[in-house]
Each structure stands twice: as C-alpha cells, then as structure tokens.
Design brief:
By secondary structure, the chain is an all-alpha fold. Helix content is 84%, strand content 0%. It has three helices and no strands. Helix 1 runs antiparallel to helix 2.
C-alpha cells in the first residue's frame, strides 16, 4: 500500500515538473524549430499519458521507452536553448 502511494506521488510530481518545464520551453524559445519540436514532443507525451491512463504502459519495459524518450528529448532541447541563450548573452 505504501509503495503504491509513494509511486503515485512520484509520478504525479514528475508529470507536473515535465508540464511546467515543457511549457516554459515552448513559450520562452525564440527559435521556431526548437519551439516546433518541443511542442510535438510535449503533445506526444500528453497523448501517451492519456492512452496510458486507460492501459498502464509503464509496467511493461518495452512500452515505457517512448515515455522516457520524450522526456529525454525535451531535456536535450531545454539544454540547447540554454546554450543558445548563453552564447547570445556573451556577444
């Protein structure tokens, strides 16, 4: 019982953090390509969550790969955006 509750709290916290960081990336990005890719990845992740609500895909290792791939791609885009902002500020 405790582990399910703890797992649910961690998943909800992770979801909230991903939604906040992704929306910040989408709205603060000045590069159109980064904004477009980030929006596509975020919508794909939302679609995965909605479908996964009906069928728990994260229990199956093979089907949890898209979940973590979407998150990893969003993190990479966020890091690229930070690098571009730092390069712009240095000039």
């Amino acid at each position: 019982m405790r582990t399910r509750f703890l797992g649910a709290i961690i998943f909800i916290t992770l979801s909230i953090v991903i939604i906040l960081r992704s929306s910040k990336l989408i709205y603060s990005s000045t590069d159109y390509n980064i904004r477009l890719v980030a929006t596509g990845l975020f919508l794909g992740l939302i679609t995965y969550w909605i479908h996964g609500f009906l069928n728990n895909f994260l229990d199956t290792e093979k089907l949890s790969v898209p979940f973590w791939a979407f998150i990893a791609a969003l993190v990479v885009l966020e890091q690229q955006q930070k690098i571009k902002e730092n390069q712009f500020r240095n000039y």
